[in-house]
Amino acid sequence: MKRYQALADTMAAEIRTGRLPVGARLPSVRHLTTQYGVGQSTVFRAYYLLEEWGLIRARERSGYYVAPGAKLSMPPIPPMPPTPLAEPAPIDVSSLVFSVLDAVKRPDVAPLGSAFPSPALFPLQRLAKSLAHATRMLDPWSTVTDMPPGSEPLRRQIALRYIGMGIAQPVEELIVTNGAMEALTLCLMAVTKPGDVVAIESPCFYAALQAIEHLGLRAVEIPVDPRDGLDLDVLAEALDKHPVRACWFMTNLQNPTGVTLSVEKKRALVALLAKHDVPLIEDDVYGELHFARERPPPAKAFDTQGLVMHCASLSKTLAPGYRLGWVAAGRFADAIRRLKLMTSISTSIPIQAGIADYLEHGGFDKHLRKLRGALLAQRDAMEHAIARWLPPDVAFVRPDGGYFLWLQLADHVDAMQLHRRGLEHGINVTPGPIFSARHAYGNYVRINFGHPWSPQIEHAMKTLGELLRASA
Amino acid sequence: MKRYQALADTMAAEIRTGRLPVGARLPSVRHLTTQYGVGQSTVFRAYYLLEEWGLIRARERSGYYVAPGAKLSMPPIPPMPPTPLAEPAPIDVSSLVFSVLDAVKRPDVAPLGSAFPSPALFPLQRLAKSLAHATRMLDPWSTVTDMPPGSEPLRRQIALRYIGMGIAQPVEELIVTNGAMEALTLCLMAVTKPGDVVAIESPCFYAALQAIEHLGLRAVEIPVDPRDGLDLDVLAEALDKHPVRACWFMTNLQNPTGVTLSVEKKRALVALLAKHDVPLIEDDVYGELHFARERPPPAKAFDTQGLVMHCASLSKTLAPGYRLGWVAAGRFADAIRRLKLMTSISTSIPIQAGIADYLEHGGFDKHLRKLRGALLAQRDAMEHAIARWLPPDVAFVRPDGGYFLWLQLADHVDAMQLHRRGLEHGINVTPGPIFSARHAYGNYVRINFGHPWSPQIEHAMKTLGELLRASA
Taking all residues of chain A, what is their mean pLDDT, rounded to a whole number? Predict the structure, then answer.
């Protein structure tokens, strides 16, 4: 551990134990250099780290103070051990994933393991109105004209949202799909054949692992740090060493870590892949759920080669269960349109018409602001519950959006066992190993804060704490 | 050619040339045995064939008479040449299929090449009402509970329709899909892995060929006679000779031939596959469009082993563009449910709810009766147009349902060229070679009679006749 990290950890402990209370001014730089025998830059780097962890705040011309709520914060997640570059390998994860997913439907189980936010957060009645109106007005011939690439009015509405991100997205390259999952799979099919190597993240959204397994591909895993995301050095090495045919990455609010790549890293990623002429399948289904002032741009924003296939949907932002997604497919648009026609004929025509109507008239941006506010409040409630109920050796990086927390548990905890024991107690946590081709992350779980706070969830967190303490 | 076939052909020519006019009594059996030097049974078999062709009708205790409209009938399709059992082969048909399908969207082209009936034949307003009502009433949690296998109320409604066919279909084995296409692909994925051999029909629905190509499977083609369907002897030979892992057959109103397997052949097919423990993927999307008194049963009705996966949809019978299908998956239900979850998460929840509401309250059977009546009238109009405009060497077997005619053209006609020339003249016919892994059926086309008769269609048929005569 570097000296500045050790110093930050020491000061974090002072804050968490209450010896430095909320609002207290931190000791001066001079004081700390003397006290700990370190240089000024070490002190500053420790400050920056504490600030990043949300423990302290700078006040202009006045120094650093302990941040409100800091006492509730968990220890920061330790740096991940350096991952050796794995050989591309076939994946066998599906049966594990299914056994975990099958528990989600049980209504008696607290939804900490859910992959979705609460359906109560969505404007379902307003959507129903748009769907009813659009279906009543539907031109019978739209069953033909709205086949892939999809309804033109809908694709125009989607293109407008890209303009909002500063992207001039040609309508012709937008293909409407049955949710983002279909978009991602079609992209993968369009640029690979069985046996090919695909670069994925580690930890990785389990459905990507399943898709790769299902299509007979091999995967090389690129580590994702919960604080700054994908390791581009390892990716560069992988691109040099292996015949990587495609990358499948989540650039914003990555599942499960919640990390968002900085604009600089996105630019560098796009440039690196352009150099190798490797397509990027960009999974950006959470980007709209940011808590920052501005929506983080996708890597697609920096793509000048048509190499980025930007996949998104409304399943997590507006219309769960409608199954409406799309891909901005760049140079692969025609191949993907044909694959879509071949494998699922079309996305439901009334759904396309209803969503187009909503996007034009329904007030999507107003809904999004409300949804983000709700998720932010739920994140804070969840952090409080963690501080209240979970043992102090549970660590996480606070996500700046979405509805997942990626919890690092004590080394000895077996997340698979915790998952099983949890189900017996009416809790479903998503165990780390399903996010890894090699069943790594044995002491990690993902928990969902997408549900309005309730006594059931509070109780579930208390029970989770008891189970964790019992496993010690 | 057998003697009874030669005799039938001779008598058919008498009728078509008008020497035996409509309503005329046919010569007696005794007269014919003497005139042609054949046995009584040969005469009777010739009579049965003429009756099957729609040229003559029996009157009880009075003999056979030339049927009304017989003069308009085309020459019967000659027996197909015996097909040698092909070696299983990889398929490369997709690019050909796409170039043909891409023309369907052009509004200036007469829809003879369409794969769908006219959307005007469906109760779109009544469906819109059900969709609006069901979506307004939707339980937000249905986004979770209606995930695969799908909405329980919908699956109960679907199970009721099986009861109408005399099949006690367990609701648990029904999986709702995005149309039949997804159901069929999931079935194929569930029982094969790349390189496996699948038995398919020849001619074969082109999407089956595409799915097999796309999944890296190999195909062995079993000939389908337009009069009595699949050749079970060749199938038995294929099952003995090759490691067939699955069959994909259309048992009712096969696409493109329109042939329906007899109950006896369905029983024999199920028994043969049970003997070899080979699953049947049964594509039954046209069965409800029969013109017979009763819906022809699917092969599933005779399955006692759970080996038949019966796939169907409402895309051709009720709700085009809604993308609502299902599979009655027998022993493969759980595998298919998981594959569905993995590849497309869920079928659109509002669509499931809307269709469940329609099936319960919308009057589906009444609509079906009306639809069948319309298609029957359109078939007759198409047959008249063929007789009026196409050269006399165009042959077909009259289909007893659906909305396709499989036309055998003169030997010298190149259907691919006819397709291209047709597009230049505003006609789209579906060329035979896309229905074959080996690009056979070079002088066949499929035409669609699913559209209410119109001057555009009449004109298209006239143009088609001119193109055919010009190609002579």
Answer: 91
Q: Does B92 touch chain A (CB under 8 A)?
A: no
Rg of chain A in Å (alpha carbons): 23
pLDDT tens sequence across B357-382: 999 999 999 999 999 999 999 998 99
What DSSP assignment string belongs to A245-284? Answer: EEEEE--SS-TTT-----HHHHHHHHHHHHHHT--EEEE-
Q: A84 CB contacts (<8 Å, ≥6 apart)?
A: none
A388: Cβ contacts below 8 Å, ≥ 6 apart? A72, A461
Record: contact A181-B343, CB cut-off 8 A: yes
Token pair recorded at residue A395 = 């660590």
Q: Are B448 and B112 in contact (CB under 8 A)?
A: yes
Q: C-alpha distances in angstroms, B99 versus B95, B215, B423?
A: 6, 20, 12
Query: Which phi and psi angles does B199 have, rounded to 5°?
Result: -90, 130
Residue type, A211: A
d(CA B189, CA A210): 14
Burial class (CB in 10 A: 0-12, 13-18, 19+), A6: middle
Residues B446, B382: Cα–Cα separation, whole Å: 12
Measured between beta carbons, which residues in chain A are less than 8 angstroms from residue B347? 323
Domains in chain A (CATH in brackets) are: 3-72 (1.10.10.10), 99-119+366-470 (3.90.1150.10), 122-364 (3.40.640.10)
Written as one letter, the residue type at B144 is V
Residue A416 vs residues A419, A461, B137: alpha-carbon distances, Å? 5, 17, 38
Torsion angle of C-alpha atoms B269, B271, B277, B282, degrees rounded to 10: 40
Q: Residue A328 contacts by C-beta under 8 Å, 6 or more apart in sequence? A: A162, A167, A169, A173, A174, A300, A308, A309, A310
Q: How far is B80 from chain A (nearest CA, A)?
A: 29
Q: How many CA atoms lie within 13 A of B457 on its CB side?
A: 21
Catalogue the E-assigned strands of B67-217: 89-90, 174-177, 197-202
Tell me the pLDDT tens digit for each residue of B265-320. 999 999 999 999 999 999 999 999 999 999 999 999 999 999 999 999 999 999 99
pLDDT tens per residue across span A114-127: 999 999 999 999 99
Alpha-carbon torsion angle A329, B215, B91, B399, nearest 10:
-100
Label residue B439 left, alpha or beta by phi (over 0 means left) and psi (-120 to 50 means alpha).
Answer: left
Tell whether the model's pLDDT for residue A365 goes beyond 90.
yes
pLDDT in tens, B15-71: 766 678 878 888 888 888 988 889 988 998 888 888 877 788 888 778 888 887 665
Query: ∠B420-B422-B426 over CA atoms, to 5°?
Result: 120
Q: What's the ipTM?
A: 0.85
Cβ-based contacts of A114 with chain B (< 8 Å): 144
Closest residue on chain B to A140 (Cα):
B119
Beta pairing, strands B89-90 & B63-66: unpaired
B99 touches chain A (CB under 8 A): no
Residue linked to tokens 């695909």: A198
Tell me if A338 and B98 make a contact (CB, 8 A cut-off).
yes
For the stretch B150-174, pLDDT in tens is 999 999 999 999 999 999 999 999 9
Strand partners, A310: A282, A328
DSSP annotation string for A405-423:
EEEEPPTT--HHHHHHHHH
Alpha-carbon distance of A468 to A418, in angstroms, equals 8
Phi-psi region of A5 (alpha: psi -120 to 50; beta: other; left: phi over 0): alpha
List chain B residues with CB under 8 Å of A145. Answer: 105, 107
The secondary structure of residue A397, as a DSSP letter, is: P
Closest by CA position to B150, among listed B357, B349, B358: B349
Question: Which tokens sit at A63?
Answer: 């120094």
